[in-house]
Amino acid sequence: MKVAIGVLTYKRPDGLKRLLAGLELLTFDKVSTPDVHVLVIDNDPEASAQEDCIQRQGSYRWKLGYSHEPRRGISHARNRALDLSMEGYDGIAFIDDDEEPAPDWLDQLLFVQQEYGADVVTGPVLPRMVEPAPAWSKKGRFYERSRHPTGFRMELARTGNVLIRTSLLENPANRFDPRYGLSGGEDTHFFLRVRQQGHEIIWADEAVVYEWVPASRIKPGWLLQRAYRSGNTYALCERDFRLPAHLLLLRAVKGVMRIGWGMLLLLPSVLLGPVRLIRCLQQICIGAGMVMGLAGSRYEEYEETHGV
Q: Is 68 exposed, middle or buried (0-12, 13-18, 19+ CB in 10 A)?
């Protein structure tokens, strides 16, 4: 088994160092130790990660490759990783430069892929706060994502923790859309297409990745921006897949209903505390993002980088 690990980075030197150190600690018990090749794709036009990667190559536990993708946008960087993994690799796993894997992360992904014959396997991303989290964020569990039992069939996957069988890439349509390079949602767009083609996405609950959440994201404003972006990019993806007009209209109605429901509950939420208020505002933002996405407006969240 020959596996590439695609590491995308953009001006996060400390995060990249932490991630590369974590990847050196990977262990394999459920599957035989694969031939691992870590592919660092530097999306900084100034190639700021190049020197550190080159210095590590001689002593790094795995094969360590560096590639510079100067075209700004996460889709370009992901596609560079896909292109590099086409020759001779059985799969490519993606993990981000603000994340850190559990030691058995790749072992669990590969095991579940083999057990279920899956084309795509994805797993949980658990938050780790750079600074102590405020009480409202803990109570509201705003940074926790849903989890499922291993083997659960998913509609979508996220590229912060995913393993893709490279045979999928033989279809030239299976690339990340550059239009989503700065808005995010490129993974939603990619995996919606993969599901339409009949490929299964399987959940591996033991394949854990930890995401370091910087102080700049532990704020209600960032949560509302993320809610708006989530609604916006999903609606844009639905437009791209040319859903029937009545389904797009239904999505618009749902967006308006979210806005209306949130507005109706806004005053009571103010009286019930910050958690209820933030959840209420999130509903309004998701609904607004959906409506604007269906109208063709795109919110580019990744113009700004969080963390170092």
A: middle
